Amino acid sequence: MSTIQIDKTIDARGMACPGPLMNLIGAIRQGQVGQTFEVLSSDEGSKTDIPAWVAKAKQEMVEVVPEDGFARFIVRKAR
Amino acid sequence: MDEQEKPLSLVLFSGTDDKLNAAAVLTVGASVMGRPVNIFLQYYALDAFRAGNVEADHALDPEATPAQAPVVRAHRGQHWSDLLKQAKEVGEVNIQACALSMDMFHLRQKDLDPLVDGIEGVAAFMTSVGDGQVLFI
Amino acid sequence: MASEVVVLGGGVGGTMCANLIAKHSQGRAHVTVVDATGNHVYQPGFLYVAVGKEKPATLQHPEKSLLRPAVSLVVDRASRVDPAAQTVLLESGRTLRYDQLLLATGSRTVMEEVPGAKDVHDFYTMDGAIRLFEALKTFEGGTIVLGVAGIPYKCPPAPVEFVFLLDDYLRARGVREKSQIKLLSPLNRAFTIEATSKLVQPILAERGIELTGFFNVESVDPVAKTVTSLEGETVDYDLLVLVPPHRGQKVIEDSGLGDERGWVPVDKNTLKHTNFEHIWAIGDTTNIPISKSGSVAHYEASVAAAEISAAAKGEPAPAHVYDGKVMCFLETGQGQATTIRFDYDHPPVSPTPSRLWHWAKLLFNKTYWHTVPQGRLP
Question: Rounded to 5 degrees, what angle do the CA atoms C295, C361, C138 make?
Fold first, then answer.
């Protein structure tokens, strides 16, 4: 398995507000095109919310890695 | 001590849902204002705080007329136990069971809902009142 | 010899923490608050100023009047922190030495970062709120749009609260029938928290407030009067209100204490700086992915005070840590409100909106000056 270069990790586990997706949007807004962001979320809703926004905003969903009690959402800023 | 800091002390005697709700609302108001609240449970109020009995129907005060009762019942507010729980998260709210009433009903701490912080006698309660006000509900 | 504790920022977090440290350090810490204006402002009131329900004067008090006598106040702006030398350089040229440093510098709004937004309205500053109310007073109908132009931003409930209070205001003025209110949300729902959003969305619909999801404002065309999202959509407006982008203060950025946006990396429980000794941070300026809200600063303040007092007294760090506790009110208009409570281990809960919580919020707002800054609310 190739290691993905992560430019910034946001650990939003246990943080309901503003929530993992908002934090991801913030990171992408501030980041450079080509950068890769990783958000750790223990929120069930992220599994649908994050991919839905990534698709709408035409960003790149790199990978979703399930872990014990949370998941890693890896997203690249494509535009 | 300025008015703001004096504790509000409530002696809850009645165990009907309407009176408990009224007491809970006063408690919420005081707690957001930063006023510590001391609650002393006696008689029928104490019985309402028994473990497993909190959510039960505690009826309304007999004073409620046939016209008023349905209106009060229909009011979809939060349960008084929820309001007290929230008040505790906001400010200092201490709920004590009256030792005498505990004896009367043959109760131990373990028989009470976790909302109740402890058991005390009337002397300890009056000490906690300090120079604040006491309301009897 | 007393430990020198310097607190940068005299907002809710800094003031409360300074007072608690002075109270609990038993004379073994000397606390100095550095504040740029010496004026403590209650920011949650801006929302009400914008709809004419609060007066600016009520929302301000001299910082000195909120501090215990033993706490010193320096009215000046910090320009540079040297973590190695443990000094703070102030704009006046004065230098303060510290044994323990608390960063409570908050966040600043930078509407200028939004292309085309020069004359857009906002209620995130006192002046903005006053200006917005002036515009609303003479608004005779049309489309009012509220959008979010940057993340993170203070007070996630605020956009939702604003549209509800705006709805009340326009109805009271008799122009609601001739107006459209549109809420542009960065997420695919009205509010960050799903449970609360479910309570609030039906009320938005009832009031005729239009919700557009996944709309992150990217730019404004003030001539065409349109606002465009990074998701590629465009919405027309007659009056535009934006939540501006936010950054930490310049001193954080210039001193290398945080990232390029001024957010300070800290441990989410102890609030200690992850890279430098003797430094803690609370409130908006931390990089914790939690909401930027007064309530967070409030609950963090007592933890930071315990940490710093222990350090000042040479005692081990306290067991009491910040558990992520947040408690917010959310106005739903027509004299009602709900609350949102959660922490790192408990998901959010919100009761059905009621008049009780609206009155509780007002009571809290009005008694704030006697309670929170002094550390009287746990």
Answer: 105
Q: Tell me which of A1, A2, A5, A17 is the catalytic residue.
A: A17
Look up residue A20 and give its amino acid: P
The CA distance from C205 to C366, in Å, is 31
Domain membership of residue B20 as a residue range: 3-136
Do the two domains C3-106+249-321 and C110-245 of this chain adopt the same fold?
yes
**CB nearest to C327's CB, from B4, B29, B89:** B89
User: Nearest-CA residue of chain C relative to A8?
Assistant: C259
Domain C110-245, CATH homologous superfamily name and number: FAD/NAD(P)-binding domain (3.50.50.60)
Query: What pairs with residue C146 in β-bridges?
Result: C183, C241
* ipTM value: 0.96
Which residues of chain B approach chain C closer than 8 Å at the C-beta? 2, 4-5, 25, 28-29, 32-34, 76-78, 82-83, 86, 89-92
How close is the nearest chain B Cα to the Cα of C317, in Å?
A: 24
- What CATH number did the domain enclosing B79 receive? 3.40.1260.10
Domain ranges across chain A: 8-76
CATH of C3-106+249-321, one of 3.50.50.60, 3.40.50.800, 2.130.10.10, 3.30.1490.20: 3.50.50.60
- Encoding tokens for residue B93? 């709210």
Q: What angle do CA C140, C146, C147 make, to 5 degrees?
A: 150
CB C295 within 8 Å of CB C157: no
* Nearest by Cα to B61 from B19, B24, B23: B19
Smallest CA-to-CA distance from C105 within C225, C264, C243, C241 is with C264
CATH assignment, A8-76: 3.30.110.40
10-residue stretch averages of pLDDT, chain C, 378 residues long = 96 98 94 98 98 97 98 98 98 98 98 94 98 98 98 98 98 98 98 96 98 98 97 98 98 97 98 98 98 98 97 94 97 98 96 96 96 94
- pLDDT over 60 (residue B1): no
Please tell me the number of Cα atoms within 13 Å of C6 on its side-chain side. 26
- Can you tell me the distance from the alpha carbon of C17 to that of C282, in angstroms, rounded to the nearest whole number? 9
Q: What is the pLDDT of residues B14-50, one digit of tens each?
A: 999 999 999 999 999 999 999 999 999 999 999 999 9
Identity of the residue numbered B71? V
Q: Quick check: A69 pLDDT over 70? A: yes
pLDDT of residue C32: 98
The predicted model gives B93-101 an average pLDDT of 97
Element at C329 (helix H, strand E): strand C326-333
Domain boundaries along the sequence of chain C: 3-106+249-321, 110-245
What per-residue confidence (pLDDT) applies to C15? 98
Number of domains in chain B: 1
CB neighbour burial string for A51-77, b if at least 16 within 10 angstroms, e if fewer: eebbebbebeebeeeeeeebbbbbbbb
Tokens of B58: 């505690």
Structure tokens at C271: 């609030």
